[in-house]
Design brief:
The complex is a heterodimer. By secondary structure, chain A is an all-alpha fold. In chain A, 80% of the residues lie in helices and 0% in strands. Chain A contains eleven helices and no strands. In chain A, helix 1 crosses helix 2, helix 6 packs across helix 7 and helix 10 packs antiparallel against helix 11. Chain B has two domains: 167 residues, Rossmann fold; 75 residues, no CATH class. The chains are: A mainly alpha, B alpha/beta. At the A-B interface, helix 8 and helix 9 of A face strand 5 and helix 3 of B.
Chain lengths: 287, 271
């Protein structure tokens, strides 16, 4: 609880700056309106009229909070306007993508550590894969998979996996290689085979690295899913809320969806952090 | 070298480790480095042999050759009458490294059980052996503790227990007490002698401490660097039973002198 004060201070500063920015950015519309009606704009009017607009350039914090509240609690969860509904659509694809991506990442890392050919060849490709803008490749994946008859959650999950496998590969390679020469020599003196040295030493040693990269990976997964939702014609998911919001200039809706995504990401990272603490503590590896 | 140069053949028991004209050249970026040159040594059953010398003299390298962790480039080396690789596969030795190297996610008992699991001992036998060696190194009742709950000295004792658990008759120790303070070290040396007397193992012990080498060994191998080689092999006349105060005796001091002279002579070579 001791670190609550600095956190709150930062939040308050952000909100203050946000309000100021909202007044400034939305004032142009207010001045336009006033000029058309031939009246002067007083400071009180400015404050009143910049912070309650229906389609502001930058919605004020309380508008976003209101939008978020309405989206979460103000609708039936089955409604197309419910953020819970859209959040669940995004979350389910994220989780599937995260599982696929993490599993692929771990398998690739094992291959890289144990196979010289993979060690030489896979990493450059993995790095190259991440230099391609996901926004460019996501529509193609959707289109190609669609033409193959794969629709629904899977194409999105694949884009999500595409982003999340990379941190897992990098972290796991490092983790599986973290045992030092002495520990490996020690296993040789016991004539341990590859499977034994993997299961008894390399895998347990890699756990701190695994959890660190899973945290990065799950956040990347969520981004991947949202990007994957953009070209699907904005049917469902937080990505579609972002897209339809921008079609109709519903900035409050965009910001509410953004915050919903951020809260979701924070929750997922927090869950993995919790699992990390429990596992590492049990393993005696916690700092 | 001719066979008359072979030193250290005053072997009491039957030969367990035999090195003949052993050479090891490492190929490095700066060219070849001769880590061992013409090493001849016989270690008999039940001997306690210390290898002493400055860093780079090849003492650890020689121990690693015995363990088949390094492979000589010339000469012959036999362990229990086999090649070192065969001996390793037959679990002829336990190896204790400078760091205890216990896995933090395993209890002390779990750590000692580790080689037994790898070697496929049955569950019951694992439990039995863990209990036995814990008693042997005086760590009874600590089996359920985790490594971080133990002092450095106790951790090193656990690592010795682990090396003993599968009952190899050779124990190779590479500066096992090098990282410990002197008081703990004295105690562990005393306990190691007791353990050696009780089990009758053949022990190869790398150290850079002269008193430690003299106190522990029946045979002291003095080595010197560039190239790594044996300069002297001293058969200790000290009795097998050795209280700590034997270190003030005349014989002890004389042996220590001879070791020191050997180390100095080795250094003189390169000047």
């Amino acid at each position: 609880m001791r670190n609550l004060l600095p956190v709150l201070t930062v939040v308050l500063v952000i909100i203050a700056v946000w309000y100021l920015a909202a007044v400034r950015l939305n004032s142009a519309w207010v001045y336009d309106q006033a000029a058309r009606e031939g009246r002067e704009v007083m400071l009180v009017d400015l404050l009143g009229e910049t912070l309650v607009q229906e389609r502001p350039v930058l919605p004020a914090p309380h508008q976003v909070a209101q939008g978020l509240y309405d989206g979460v609690f103000g609708q039936k969860v089955t409604s197309k306007r419910s953020l819970v509904y859209h959040g669940w659509v995004t979350l389910s694809a994220t989780l599937l993508g995260f599982v696929i991506g993490s599993a692929a990442g771990i398998l690739l890392a094992v291959g890289i550590v144990y196979n010289r050919a993979m060690d030489m060849s896979v990493m450059p490709w993995a790095i190259a894969s991440q230099t391609i803008p996901i926004l460019a490749i996501a529509p193609m994946i959707i289109v190609v998979l669609n033409s193959l008859g794969v629709t629904g959650i899977v194409p999105k999950a694949i884009i999500s996996a595409y982003l999340s496998f990379f941190p897992v590969v990098v972290g796991m390679v490092k983790g599986l290689r973290s045992p030092d020469a002495m520990q490996l020599d020690q296993l040789r003196t016991w004539n341990a085979n590859g499977v034994q040295s993997f299961g008894k030493l390399r895998l347990p040693s890699s756990m701190p690295y695994l959890f660190a990269s899973l945290k990065v990976g799950v956040a990347a997964s969520l981004v991947g899913t949202i990007v994957g939702e953009l070209p699907t014609g904005a049917v469902a998911g937080l990505g579609s809320r972002l897209l339809s919001g921008s079609y109709y200039g519903q900035t409050v809706q965009i910001w509410a969806a953004l915050f919903a995504a951020a809260i979701l990401a924070a929750g997922l990272v927090g869950l993995i952090g919790q699992a990390e603490r429990m596992v590492l503590q049990r393993m005696g590896l916690a700092r | 070298m001719t066979s008359s140069d072979v030193i250290g053949d005053g072997v009491t028991g039957q030969a367990v480790i035999e090195a003949r004209d052993l050479n090891l050249v490492f190929q490095t970026a700066d060219g070849p480095v001769q880590a061992l040159r013409n090493v001849n040594l016989t270690i008999g059953k039940g001997d306690f042999v210390s290898f002493i010398g400055p860093s780079g003299c090849g003492k650890t390298t020689f121990l690693r050759c015995i363990a088949a962790l390094e492979h000589p480039t010339g000469g012959t080396l036999s362990v229990n009458g086999m090649t070192p690789d065969e001996a390793r596969r037959k679990r002829a030795y336990g190896y204790v490294f400078q760091a205890a190297g216990l896995y933090p996610w395993r209890t002390i008992a779990g750590n000692i059980r580790l080689p037994l699991e790898i070697m496929g001992f049955s569950r019951d036998e694992q439990e039995q052996r863990v209990a036995d060696v814990l008693r042997l190194v005086d760590l009874e009742g600590f089996g359920r503790k985790f490594p971080w709950q133990l002092s450095g000295g106790m951790q090193q004792r656990a690592s010795i227990a682990r090396a003993l658990a599968f009952d190899a008759d050779i124990l190779l120790m590479d500066e096992p007490f090098g990282a410990l303070d002197e008081i703990v070290r004295d105690r562990l040396n005393e306990e190691l002698l007791k353990l050696w007397a009780r089990t009758g193992k053949t022990i190869g012990f790398v150290t850079h401490s002269i008193p430690e080498a003299v106190y522990l060994s029946t045979k002291i191998v003095v080595m010197s660097p560039r190239p790594g080689r044996i300069t002297d092999v001293i058969e200790s006349p000290l009795p097998r039973e050795r209280p700590l105060d034997i270190r003030e005796s005349r014989t002890f001091i004389e042996i220590a002198h001879r070791v020191r002279d050997g180390l100095r002579a080795g250094h003189g070579d390169e000047m």
